[in-house]
Each structure stands twice: as C-alpha cells, then as structure tokens.
Specification:
With 78 residues, the chain is mostly beta strands. The protein is built from one helix and five strands, in the order βββαββ. It has a three-stranded antiparallel sheet with strand order 2-1-4, with no helix packed on it. The chain has a two-stranded antiparallel sheet with strand order 3-5.
Amino acid sequence: MKAIVIPEPGRVEVKEFPMVQRREGEAVLKLLYGGVCGSDLGTYRGMNVYAKYPCIIGHEFAARWSGRGKMIMESGKA
Ligand SMILES: [Zn+2]
C-alpha cells in the first residue's frame, strides 16, 4: 500500500509499505479516499509541535469493507 510521507519539514514522498496482517477482532478496509487538510500543511511546514518525523499524513478517510474480518459499527461514543 502507498502512503504520503513527510520525512522532514518541507519534503513530501509517496512510499510503498507492506500490508499489515489483520489481527483478531479487526476488519480490513479498502481505502477509497483520504483527505489532506490544514493540519497536515502545518506538519509539512514544520509548525506542528506534535509531529514526529518521518510521519504519514492524511486522515478523514472514506473506505469500503473488504469482506475480511467482522465489521462492527458502534455509535454514540466520543
Ligand atoms: Zn483534518
């Protein structure tokens, strides 16, 4: 699978990573879309005090269940 990586402030790379093995109780999702927003831009610019480099950016995903593993939806939890 591919991920957008910021190895250090001001640099962006697309890197290939091995698929992780599904563990008991987990489902496998196929990522359809991922968002890169202003907080990621702060990481790119070196302004995110919580970022530890290298880091993978992107969040706010839309995905489809691959059919592997149980899909459990919980709501009402923050
Ligand atoms: Zn965001």
